[in-house]
Design brief:
This is Presequence translocated-associated motor subunit PAM17. It is a multi-pass membrane protein. Component of the PAM complex, a complex required for the translocation of transit peptide-containing proteins from the inner membrane into the mitochondrial matrix in an ATP-dependent manner. Keywords: Membrane, Mitochondrion, Mitochondrion inner membrane, Protein transport, Transit peptide, Translocation, Transmembrane, Transmembrane helix, Transport. The chain is mainly α. It has two domains: 13-99, no CATH class; 119-168, no CATH class. 66% of the residues lie in helices and 0% in strands. It contains five helices and no strands. The protein has helices at 15-50, 53-60, 66-96, 101-118, 142-159. Helix 1 (15-50) runs antiparallel to helix 3. The chain is flat. The relative contact order is 0.12.
């Protein structure tokens, strides 16, 4: 017999599965950034060259060297494509994992709230004592989270700001 409780309609996402999905989301975003950089650069340069915008812009900029203009345009287009990539990457991730996306979003929000609650105060940092992983970006497992908590506590002890566990 099936259990028809409200919580059983969605699969329960474990923390290890959450970290694996988080890693997958980051990789999809990076892949889409690379594709976006190449795509925007290709179509942008093709449009510039075919329509003669390179010569027009070079003349408008007071005789700016066309090779320099195309080089800077290439870098600019690659940068724009790289920044646009994660937008499409998140959409690809949401479509590919739409079965667990609500649970993933809930866990992601809870995880970031834990990070905010336990992270160090960066005002006590210096070049000799930088704060450890402020946003928790390097956390990839439950053991990594525990290591992150120890690093935060060690930083607070080193700066003399440890007050014990924070309460909600």
């Amino acid at each position: 017999m099936a259990n028809n409780s409200p919580g059983s309609t969605q699969p329960q996402l474990t923390w290890d599965a959450f970290f694996a999905l988080r890693r997958t989301r980051r990789r999809i975003g990076q892949a889409c950034s690379g594709i976006g950089a190449v795509g925007v650069t290709y179509f942008g340069l093709t449009t510039m060259i075919n329509n003669g915008y390179d010569a027009t812009l070079s003349a408008q900029l007071g005789g700016f060297d066309p090779f320099m203009l195309m080089g800077l345009s290439t870098l600019g287009m690659m940068g724009v494509g790289w920044l646009i990539g994660p937008i499409f990457g998140n959409q690809v991730f949401n479509l590919a994992y739409r079965g667990v996306i609500t649970e993933f979003t809930r866990k992601d929000s809870a995880f970031f709230n834990r990070i905010k609650r336990h992270r160090v105060d960066p005002t006590a940092s210096s070049l000799a004592n930088p704060p450890p992983d402020y946003y928790g970006e390097k956390i990839g497992s439950v053991a990594g989270y525990r290591r992150w908590l120890k690093d935060q506590r060690a930083f607070n002890l080193k700066t003399g700001r440890y007050k014990g566990a924070k309460t909600l």
